[in-house]
Amino acid sequence: MAAKWVDLLRLRLGSPPSITQAITRSNISFLNTPFGSLRIRDSGGVSPSLIFACDAPNVLEHYDAIFSLLSSSYRLICLEMPGFGFSYPNSSFDFSMRQYVDVVVYVIETLSVGLATLMFPCAWSYVAFQLATERPILVEKLLVSQCPCWDEEQAWTKRIDIRGLMRTPVVGQLFLAVSLESVSDGWYDIALPPGQRKKSFSEPARNVLSNGGIFCLASLIQTWFHVKNPSFWVEQPTIVMWGGSDRTHRHSNPDSVLKYLKRGKVVTYRDAGHFPELEDPERLNSLLLNEELWRSLRILEADQGTKNDEDSASSVSNQAAGIAISGRRKSFGSHL
User: Rounded to the nearest 5°, which phi and psi values hold at 95?
Assistant: First the structure.
C-alpha cells in the first residue's frame, strides 16, 4: 500500500516556496486546480499548442532553449506535475494515473488550449496515452520519449530502485525527503549520455529543490507499481523519441511500446540519453517539421508500398546521422 500520506502530511506542515523563488521567468505562473497548485510556463498566443510535462527532477527552467527555439511557431505550455518541482498537491491528491490525466484535462480546458500536441516523457508518456485514448478530441498527436511497454517500464523501475527503497512505503518517502539533491545529482550521472554537460541539468534542479521544491517519486512509484495491464490504445499519430545512450534503459526494448499505438513510430537517437528533446532541442524541432514522417503515420495501409520505397531511399542519410526509425505495422517495419 502506498504511503503517499507521508508526503502529503510533510508538504502540509512545510512552507511553500516564495513567489521570488518560484517565478523565475516572465512566462511562469501558478494555476490553481482541484488537485493543488500547479506551476506552469505558458508562452501564450494563438498558435498550435504544444504541451510539455517535466520529467522530474527536470523543472520548468530546463525548457529555456526549447521556448527560445519554438515559441514563435507554437503556443508552448510546460507543466510541473503535482508532487514535483513547485507543484504542491492538495491533501486529497492520490498520485494515481487517473488523477494525473484529470490534471492535464483541466489544464487544457481551463487555458482554452484546443487541440494539442503532447510532448510527455518517461512515466508521463503513459498519462498521455491514457488521455489520448479516453479524450481523443483533445489530442492531435503525441511526441513521447523513453517509454517501453508497461511491463518493461515496471522492470525498469525495479532496476533504477536498486535497493527497493522507493518502492517501500514510508521508507521511500523519508529517504527522498532527506536526500533530494543527492538523488537528483545521481540521476543525471547515469541518465545523461557521455559528453553531455551535467551541470546544465543538475543546477536548475538543485535551485528548485534547495528552495522548497518537491520530488514525491516514492509516492508515484508505490501508487503505479501495482497497476497491471493498463488499457492504452492510441489512434493519434505518435512519435516515440528514444535515447540510445540512456544507460538506465539499456535493457529496455523501445519497440515494445508500439503495441499501444495504431499510428506509431520509434525514432532512436544513438547518441542521446534519457532526455533526447532537452539534450538537443533541434531534435524536437526537426521532428515537428518533418511533414513526411507525420504524413506516413496518417496514410492508409493500402498506400504503404510507395512509402516504403521512399523510406528505403532515405535510409543512408538517417544511418549516418545516428537515427533509426521503426514502426508498428508490418508496412512501417523498416529500420532507417
Answer: 65, 15
Domains of the chain: 4-14+27-233+249-256 (3.40.50.1820)
DSSP 234: B
Give 140's contacts (C-beta < 8 A, 6+ positions apart).
48, 115, 116, 117, 236
Residue 33's CB is within 10 A of a number of other CB atoms, namely: 19
Taking the mean position of all CA atoms in its chain, how far away is CA 134?
Answer: 19
Q: Among 289, 109, 107, 111, which residue's Cα sits nearest to residue 120? A: 107
pLDDT at site 320: 46
β-pair partners for 323: 269
Q: Which residues contact 198 (CB under 8 A, 6 or more apart)?
A: 188, 189, 192
CB 172 within 8 Å of CB 218: yes
Residue 306 pLDDT class (50, 70, 90 cuts): very low
Question: How far apart (Å, rounded) are the C-alpha atoms in residues 33 and 22?
Answer: 17
Query: Which pLDDT value is given to residue 308?
Result: 39
Question: Residue 333's pLDDT band (boundaries 50, 70, 90)?
Answer: very low
